[in-house]
Amino acid sequence: MTAFTYFKDEWTPVIDNYLAKHLASEIDDQKISQIMSYSVMAGGKRLRPLLFLATLNALGKKIEESEIRLACGIELIHTYSLIHDDLPAMDNDDYRRGKLTSHKKWGEAEAILAGDALLPLGVQWIAEGSNSSELVIMITKAIGANGMVGGQYLDIDSTNNASVADDEKFINKMEWLKTGCLIQASVEMAAVYAKASDIEQVKLVDFAKTFGRSYQIYDDLVDVVETSEEAGKATHKDEEEGKNNTLTLLGIEKSRKELKDLISQAKADLHGINNEVLLGFLDLYHKVL
Ligand code: GRG
């Protein structure tokens, strides 16, 4: 077992239990609570809350209930984005996390509302967990029009638009906004929360930027390398549906090379911090390399 596996095995159940318990107890209407919980508890990897907690760990900050609430707030926001991304008006997916998507299970209006409710609840938990407007500003910037929503907009706007298919700058920007911003925020919020030194913050943010970029390439490779059963969602969709991404731009082998380069870069970014748990996140990529 690696330090990362220990960490993941210790904290994933804590995150899962907190999410299940508080979604059930903090929402008055049992039906909307059930619809929200359905997607949150469908078995995500908890990558972003784990990154937040691992960064605290790397900085020697103790993890207690407030830190778990904050970390879980990030997961609520991430789950909202998945529910909305799967809607017929966006990616139109039937499966996510190995289960029917929210709109397929509960109906479209219900799925929209479940996402709409998860987003502010996530921000609320981050505000309450951190007691800091600085962290609230960081997360809201990361997921708004200059962040995740902006990236999703560029994605929707450029689908089936051949003129951007070889525009590397555009594709990098779109992927960074859609995927990278929330990943960066998960690490950067922890660095600010744990009062990391300026040097530590620079290294951690560089690592988060490199990891955020690499995660999209990984996710694109999952689309071509894994079966739907393995991925828990439809695969082999991107090219068919006219999506423009690093993989459709570079092809499989060059994307793998880019991912390997980013893994080396991420290790270099953490030089001097050398935290085994944070470095262990890079092991996720082995299955597509
Ligand atoms: C609808 C505002 C809005 C945004 C959608 C999340 C997203 C933005 C789109 C989903 C499509 C996609 C491939 C995005 C890249 C981010 C990504 C890799 C999401 C999947 O995250 P994982 O792998 O999933 O952490 P789990 O289920 O493990 O949490």
UniProtKB/TrEMBL annotation:
Gene3D superfamilies: Farnesyl Diphosphate Synthase. Its cofactor is Mg(2+). It is an enzyme of class 2 (transferase). It catalyses: isopentenyl diphosphate + (2E)-geranyl diphosphate = (2E,6E)-farnesyl diphosphate + diphosphate. InterPro entries: Isoprenoid_synthase_dom_sf, Polyprenyl_synt, Polyprenyl_synt_CS. One of its GO terms (molecular function) is (2E,6E)-farnesyl diphosphate synthase activity. The keyword Magnesium applies. One of its GO terms (biological process) is farnesyl diphosphate biosynthetic process. Its EC number is 2.5.1.10. SUPFAM superfamilies: Terpenoid synthases. Transmembrane segments: none annotated. Keywords: Isoprene biosynthesis, Magnesium, Metal-binding, Transferase. Belongs to the FPP/GGPP synthase family. PANTHER family: FARNESYL DIPHOSPHATE SYNTHASE (PTHR43281). This is Farnesyl diphosphate synthase. It comes from Lactobacillus acidophilus (strain ATCC 700396 / NCK56 / N2 / NCFM).
